[in-house]
Amino acid sequence: MASDASTTAPAVPTDPADKSVGDLVRNLSEDLSRLVRDEIHLAQAEVGAKAKKAGIGIGAFGGAGVIALYGLGVLIAAAVLGLSAAVPAWLAALIIGVVLFVVAGVAALVGRKKLQQAAPPVPTRAIESTKADVAEIKESIKR
């Protein structure tokens, strides 16, 4: 038995001008919901990618810092030994220690300033895309 296409399901108009207000509101709700979900997924992906890059960078800096610390220890010992040829060993160690504390203080001040200037990892592309979507929705509502 052949089935007629017109008896199986009512035809849904494809032209928005032919759709009912209820259909348009339902479509708007579905599209808006999908858009919000997609924007959230985009923001999560963007922040995740930035966090991964930052983690790798921090790990590399940490490894470099440990190796540099060993090298600095050797240089400090050499400085104390070299200065002890001119002054008593205890005085050489004291002078080098004071110099190191001054250098550490300057480094701490520079680090604090850089941390204050650092921007939080914000999903800038997702925010811009969301703003564009909102503007587009507002423009289509005005029509």
From TrEMBL:
The UniProt record lists the keyword Membrane:
yes
Q: Where is this region: Disordered?
A: 1-20
Provide this UniProt record's keywords sorted from A to Z: Membrane, Transmembrane, Transmembrane helix
Q: Which Pfam families match?
A: Phage_holin_3_6
Q: Show the stretches that span the lipid bilayer.
A: 60-83, 89-110
Q: Which InterPro entries match?
A: Phage_holin_3_6
For this entry, the protein name equals Phage holin family protein
